[in-house]
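Person: Show me a sequence?

Helper:
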Amino acid sequence: MKNEKASEFIVRVPGMCSNHCAGLVKKSLERLPQVQSVKTNTARRLVVVFPTDGELSAEMIRGTIEKAGYEVEDIYREGEERSEETQGDAEEGYLAKARKNLWIALIPTTLIMLLMMPHMFWVPIPGYLAVIALLAIPVVFYAGWETHRSAFRSLLNGTANMDVLISLGSLPPYLIGLVGFFTPMTSFIEMAATIMAFHLLGRYLETRAKGKASQAIRKLLHMGARTARVERDGEVVKVSVKALQEGDLMIIRPGEKIPTDGEVVAGTSHVDESLATGESVPVERSEGDRVLGATMNKEGRLKVRATKVGKDTFLAQVVKLIEEAQGSKVPVQELADRITAYFVPFVLALSLLTFLFWLLFPQVLMPVLEAADGVLPWVDPERGTLPLALLAGVAVLVISCPCALGLATPTALMVSSGLGAQQGILIRSGEAIQKFRDIRWLVLDKTGTLTKGTPALTEVVSGEGFSEEEVVRLAASLEGASEHPLAEAIVAGAKERDLEVSEPEDFKALTARGVRGRVEGQAVLVGNRRLWEEEGVTSDGKLLEKAEELESEGKTVMLVAIDGKAAGLLAVADTLKESSLEAVRSFHKMGLRTLMVTGDNERVARQVAKETGIDEVRAEVLPEGKVEVLKELQKKYPGQVAMVGDGINDAAALKQADIGLAIGAGADVTIEAADVTLVKGDLRDVEKAILLSRATFRKITQNLFWAWIYNVVAIPVAAIGLLHPMVGVIAMTASSLTVISNSLLLKKSFGAKNQEKGEDPPASEPPAAPAQKSCCHGGN
């Protein structure tokens, strides 16, 4: 268990760009007795070090990482102040450095190539060896200095990173090429310069591509407001967002960003929440509504009380979830990482064996070269045994590419997490992405997930001599004095119908029966049958029959009497979300079975299931009972059960499920327990999350497949002498770029699919349907 007194260190390591590199850094740090555990995030080039006690210092961490062959750009304790722009600046710095080294290598190497062609095929150039040796110095020794230093430190540390292969593929050939000044022999200086130049080209392109793939977090960080107007001592002052405290009253004018999460205490406006939900249409926000930081206030002036600041805000939590997703590993990648850990030592041994085999038994492989002579322009059987052995050995070094294997998962996760964030889908772990492909059962909570979670007036029936408007207006006027949730639904229903309500007189709440009072001089009763009987209201047979019918549908029915006469009835229910029916249909099309688990009664639950098409129902289930239902289902279908919920009472069940999805902004504890958070509260986003996860996993498996195929095919070809090292380093660069490009294609393919869905909406939305437990206002 982590020592709470010793906060973790966060380290930025610019050169840690793949899981292979991350594995070497992690392995080196874990050797320290003061280190308990290490987490790496290649997407952001960050290492998190958890100490066993307070004795671990930043200098010890820095020294250990540098010995492993990697530079440390920044190191700080968790919780220390860091600018939001730091990461973006660091990414720009990596790219600028890579670009500079590339140009330093590219210009001399281009000149070497221009000189090499006429020298080899037309006219020998006087002083050729001296010229190319001088031109190659900045390439091999200046631009390639960090590569050599990293390789040297890595070997001293007892590890072997990718830079070891490149260093051995460029330094020895350059030094051996200098022998040509003393005795006639094939020059390898061109090869040394070309290998380093193409390596640096690959690094630059990789850094640029990964920068594009990981821009989601940087975009989010720049979306937040920088300053806020707050009321302090009766005056409105401008302060930094970082200085905000919970409880501060913020003034947000039209066109300004809301500085931090809060609750509207005054004013009405429309707020553009597309940052959080992906919805382009602004939503109305007024007193009592919650608003999110970094969203845009449109036309009205709002006064907002800050409820969350700093790391607790919605935006900060989104960034945290994306970072967790990008730093996580898919189980299928873990096997690849274990193999990759032994990859470089294996390649070094194979390269040496290849060199020795060519030196000792050239006649065995010479027929292969003779057959390829004339087909492959770089194959020349007459070079001599030593040059051929050296070419084959170096080709094996530079053709091998553990980086492509290490990039397979992080690049796909970076693109996927960015895509998800844009659409309000936050997938927290790589493990969930792999598990989604096996899901066969979707367990759904009812209230707040399938339904809106708040009661609404769904039906009005008037008695003889009364109109519906009169029944609703008088009932709402009386209920306006009540704080009961069902009373609020009636008042809201009157407002929706543009009915003016009056102030009631002689209001009285009657326990377990309803309410009574006088409105506009008339005696009004709203409650259950017991209240009617006690007050001697003349029963209306048709009204009572209708009441029974509505109650059988799971609605809560309230009877209304005016001046002792049966005036009508009001039905209140928790209505289905407009998207629920469409969502359940899409689940079935995907081959998923659905199970609704609710604490509501059997009658209400069955009605909701009937209206939505849900396959199975478990009603009257307590929160702990939901966990048992999931365990029971998991016994029959191990690894195939996902759960969607929104409330605190769903947190344990979400944790128990193979994949937990928290829908809506939800409770913090629910989001913390979930593997996926759906910001909008739209059940249709579950389908999007599944499709995105499955598409991401396909990209990961494709990346791993091509990376392995590349190495399996390329290494033997290089070993038998059919691959020139310069061609090999180009192929190695291409393999890494192929993996990155394939991951970036996810953005086009998945984005296009969703755009097509958005352009072709359903002909009509399904009508709101009731689904409220029949708890009857005042009891029943």
Notes: The radius of gyration is 35 Å. Residues 649 and 723 are 63 Å apart (CA to CA). Residues 1-5, 758-780 have pLDDT under 50 and may be disordered.
